[in-house]
Specification:
By secondary structure, the protein is α/β, with parallel strands linked by helices. It is 32% helix and 19% strand. The strands form three sheets. Strands 1-3-6-9-12 form a five-stranded parallel sheet. The protein has a five-stranded mixed sheet with strand order 5-8-11-13-14, with no helix packed on it. The protein has a four-stranded parallel sheet with strand order 2-4-7-10. It is globular, with a radius of gyration of 17 Å. It starts with a helix and ends with a strand. It binds coenzyme A. Coenzyme A binds next to strand 13.
């Protein structure tokens, strides 16, 4: 009986989590589409949805960011995608990935483009930090916990700090 109970609990929890993540993914894409419609009212709506996404799902994907087709966050929590990020098609972003600006204490911080431009078919492992206005090619796999501050060519695997292993 105990086995059945924990199995049901497992299936139920798994289903709930999947549903929440699906909703989060949809909501992020919706906010982005509304923002890029150019209509002032829809842009305001995008910001409201964005604020709700932070509160409800714990992810901060700025609607100003350009997100390609089939974007997927299997676990949306902790994902931060800055406003000038560009992400190509078929990209997957695992939890706690940050596409951030380079806030330098020593150099003048740039205005305008501050975030990465990513190609198609890329995967970003959990806790990866993608810092600054860099270009990441197509078919790139960024390992869990990597810190990337330099451009990445097509078909690469990066782990650690800018450490290219393929
Ligand atoms: C980087 C990654 C793609 C490498 O996968 P792989 O090519 O199959 O490599 P392997 O698993 O065979 O590991 C090769 C070596 O790299 C090490 N390694 C693997 N991932 C690493 C990472 N993210 N950072 C540093 N080293 C890593 C392994 O420990 C292994 O070391 P060893 O040769 O001394 O034993 C993968 O490990 C990874 O980070 N995937 C992302 C997983 C993730 O984010 N999951 C989130 C789920 S919510």
């Amino acid at each position: 009986m105990r086995g059945l109970h924990s199995w049901l609990l497992y299936v139920w929890n798994d289903d709930i989590c999947e549903r929440v993540n699906r909703k989060a993914n949809k909501s992020v894409v919706k906010a982005s589409n509304l923002w890029h419609s150019g209509n002032k009212f829809k842009m305001l709506l995008a910001m409201l949805i964005h604020a709700r996404n932070i509160k409800r799902y714990g992810c901060e994907v700025y609607p100003q960011a350009i997100i390609g087709k089939n974007f997927y966050m299997p676990h949306c929590v902790g994902v931060v995608i800055g406003s000038t990020t560009v992400i190509g098609d078929n990209c997957t972003v695992f939890p706690n990935v940050v596409f951030g600006a380079r806030y330098s204490p020593t150099k003048k911080n740039p205005k305008g483009r501050r975030h990465a431009k990513v190609g198609n078919n890329c995967v970003f492992g959990a806790n990866a930090s993608i810092i600054g206005d860099i270009t990441i090619g197509n078919d790139v796999f960024i390992g869990a916990g990597a810190v990337v501050t330099k451009d990445v060519p097509d078909n690469s695997i990066i782990v650690g700090i800018n450490n290219k292993v393929r």
